[in-house]
């Protein structure tokens, strides 16, 4: 990585470097990603040396408090090491990009809408724990509780690389709080994850292909909500894709975010079609029902969260709902990496 950084930095000093703006942006982006990785490695090296020194001094001085301090430092080291191990599995072209996550409840009314909101909270907690900036782009309240849909953007390095594991149908089994008989009920919600596409990627969208409308925002928001027709909805007529944004203060800002979402959706469709995975890429995961679910969250008669793709599971369902997704993400990335290595072999 050090050699690659030197190579790229030398390239950046060449007289004609800025003549190709797309290439120059890609070079600077790669330099930043590599330097961030190197900084994390150096941090771990320093922490490792500090732990060794703590052990030596503790032994020499026969310090009774040293074991507890060393144990705490080792816990911190292992946590940072686990994060770095996860990042080494991010080999996709767009893994370093921001991510756009959209959640829709399946059939089932209030129960499914409540489940969609629980997933929204889970991803927001995960994002906050990993210091991503989480922004609500569009939000539609449920009839009685929960949500009918939500679109969120996660800004930060490798957001898409980590969250791409969440694309699919998620299944909930619990005693429904909305059922007077107290019966166990199964609910479903779909999660769509796309990389945010920056200006360096050109997707042709003709103005005559768009149907743009403005409306009064609803649901969670600031003081501007319900006062002006600032929310923007865009329909791409050739594909039928609809996106909307209502959380910014002006039509211009909401339209800008909506266009960014549309560009990402169209790019994702094209990319997945090139990989001959058309149905998955369009987010057409089939019915939001049992046979298509990627993960089950069971609250009763026992507690278990199990991923059907990797067979990874955890019994602490509440920990997972509080954003504890790293085990599932790690298992998915490791499985994807192994499959890619097998394909190359």
N-to-C CA distance = 24 Å
- CATH fold category name of the largest domain: Alpha-Beta Plaits
Kindly estimate the percentage of residues that lie in beta strands according to DSSP.
Answer: 15-25%
Helix content: 40-55%
Average pLDDT for all residues: 86
| Order of strands in the sheet with most strands | 2-3-1-5-4-9-10-11
The count of DSSP E runs of length 2 or more, i.e. the number of strands, is 11
Which stretches are poorly predicted, pLDDT < 50 over at least 5 residues? Answer: 221-226, 277-285
Give a quick account of the main beta sheet: strands, pairing sense, barrel closure. Answer: 8 strands, mixed
What count of domains describes the coordinates?
3
Rg (C-alpha, Å): 23 Å
CATH architecture heading of the largest domain: 2-Layer Sandwich
Write structural notes for this entry:
This protein is of the alpha+beta class. The protein has three domains: 2-88; 99-198 and 287-344, Alpha-Beta Plaits (2-Layer Sandwich), CATH 3.30.70; 207-274, 2-Layer Sandwich (Double Stranded RNA Binding Domain). It is 44% helix and 21% strand. The chain has helices spanning 2-12, 21-61, 66-88, 110-129, 159-163, 251-274, 278-281, 317-321, 326-344, and strands at residues 99-105, 133-141, 147-155, 168-175, 184-195, 210-215, 231-236, 241-245, 293-298, 304-307, 313-314. It has an eight-stranded mixed sheet with strand order 2-3-1-5-4-9-10-11, sandwiched between helices. Strands 6-7-8 form a three-stranded antiparallel sheet, with helices on one face. Strand 10 and strand 11 form a beta hairpin. Helix 1 (2-12) runs antiparallel to helix 2 (21-61) and helix 2 (21-61) runs antiparallel to helix 3 (66-88). The longest helix has 41 residues, at 21-61. The radius of gyration is 23 Å and the shape is globular. 28% of the residues are buried.
